[in-house]
Amino acid sequence: MHQPLQDSQPGAVFLGAVDYIQILILFCLTMKKLLFLLPLLFVTLLIQAQTWDWGGPIDPLQAKFQIQQYRLELEIFPETQSISGRSTITFSSQEKLDTLRFQLIGQYQVSKVLMDGKEVAFSHQNDLVDIIPIDCTCDQVEIFYEGPTPIAQNPPWTGGFTWEKDQWGRHWMGLSSQGEGAKLFMPAFDHPSSEPQKGVELFFTVPKPYFVASNGRLIQTQDQGQKVRYHWKTDYPISNYNINFTVGVFEKAESQFRSVSGAVVPMAVWVLQDNKGMAKELLEVLRVSAQTHEKYFGPYPFPEDKIAVVETPYLGMEHQTINAYGNNFQFVPMGKVQYDWLLHHELGHEWFGNKVSVSDWADMWIHEGLTAYGDWLFFWEHGGPEAYFEKVNAEARDIPHAQPVVSPPNSTEKTAYHPEIYTKGAMVIHSLRGVIGDELFFPALKAFAEGEQFTYLNQVTTQDFTAFIQQYTGQNLEGFFELYLKTTRLPEVKVKKRGKNEFLISLEGIDFEMPVEVKTSTGIQKYSLGKTPTLISSTSTPEVDPRGWLMLKR
Q: Considering the domain 62-248, what is its CATH architecture?
């Protein structure tokens, strides 16, 4: 904060002519410096104000090849908030390519591009790197680049690099790019449908005493005098925005997690040394969340790597095997355990978002809606049915039903990302449970999360999910899914008294029937309700859907 200007004091000394000349010279020099700096300041502000998007239709040039692996070598310079990188991209193609196209934001400068050890022609403009391949059988390209990092304006929602310092004045950097894609930090085939088939290999060089937490498993730590180099690697396919790294001076707590699959998975948390007293408790919260997710969604998806979180200077994000955590250890008791909504939610994305992933942001609700429902299941598992329904009804009241859960085909992230993919997406899954019953619902959900045709290399669509549920249950649920996923309409409950102890109940606005709980004088029963009125006997006015399984206009 700037200090306030001081009031003039009595007895001030008058300035002489020499003083005025000196002031005039200083003023001129200052203005000259300002005029020099203004263009730089303008560019900096322009960069920081710029936002990026990704998704949409696949670029025709990029549709011709597939990424096999990214090998990224980055040197990170905290003092200047900049990076210098070498990206080796391995790709495959069924045809001879005239142009290799990758996304990389324009504020980085590409210095050279190599294929088969030889420099090749390239252009870098409009956030695109276009490379003219040489006549060879090469399946790799190396891109060298450097520059200042884009600063996140509202992480993680408006992403970029977040540079902070801990209480000892040491640098602390976090990266978030779900809304922007990997082009914020590396050249990439930046589309949700493109995941490196054989994973990523990551090398980070930083000044001592800094550590870099990243995806996969730590292969090697190499001392380089005043610097240190970390080598991370994962062989699993990974979405571009999930490739991530966090820099800081951390305290680590670790243990082993025994999965329901029988695998023993390394489990770790990295927190700032400011918060080292919270590390073991955070590790226990992580263990409980992992066990809860496994119960409902099946074995942890990345047993060859790790289960881990790292403390970040922003709220959080689902970076594969190294989830960002910035919720300030706000644990709340839930039954006999502690619950952290942020940690549990981001961990849930290891199943829905990282293992099960979509190729078009139009279907982003599969990532967020199923994961948000996993949050509600924590209440069911540890708080019981009362806590679960209290949570569900509280969330349902705030759904505006302003836009469909499923976006148009070839949506960008900005088009598809809105609050209802979380709340209404989760509510659709909750309603599905109410319609088909627990005996079918829980096995179907787990089977979807474990199905080879839906996981890892095989990305999914909304149609894949709805078709699988119908095939698994043997029920026609087309009307249900069409209504709740693709429209903003809600069935309207109509209850009309007929005679002394009889009522006609219907759901107007739909052309199909749903099993709905109705509370009468004799208790709660399920009835198949639709636009044709159903006659129900009761000595008291019936209550339709008393526990709140469905989204209805009442």
A: Sandwich (2.60)
Looking at the domain that runs over 356-486, which CATH code has it been given?
Answer: 1.10.390.10
Q: Give CA–CA dist 236/233, Å, rounded.
A: 9
Cα 128 → chain centroid? 24
Q: Pairing state of beta strands 307-311 and 323-325?
A: parallel
How many angstroms separate the most distant Cα atoms in the chain?
Answer: 105
The 3-state DSSP composition of the chain as helix, strand, coil percent (nearest 5) reads: 30, 30, 40
Cβ–Cβ < 8 Å for 334, 347? no
pLDDT band at 137 (very low <50, low <70, confident <90, very high): confident
| Residues 269, 273, 277, 281, Cα dihedral to 10° | -10
- Which residues on neighbouring strands pair with residue 190, listed in sequence order? none
Choose among 348, 168, 200: nearest CA to 272: 168
Q: State if pTM tops 0.85.
A: yes
> Does residue 121 contact residue 132 with C-beta atoms inside 8 Å?
yes
Segment 457-491, tens digit of pLDDT: 999 999 999 999 999 999 999 999 999 999 999 99
CA distance linking residue 461 with residue 483, whole number of Å:
17
Structural domain spans, the chain: 18-49, 62-248, 356-486, 492-544
Dist CA 59 CA 189 (whole Å): 9
And the tokens for 263?
A: 């695998």
Question: What is the pLDDT of the chain when averaged over all its residues?
Answer: 92
134 confidence band (pLDDT: 50, 70, 90): confident
Structure-token pair, residue 290:
């992992």
Q: From CA 78, how far away is CA 204, in angstroms rounded?
A: 12
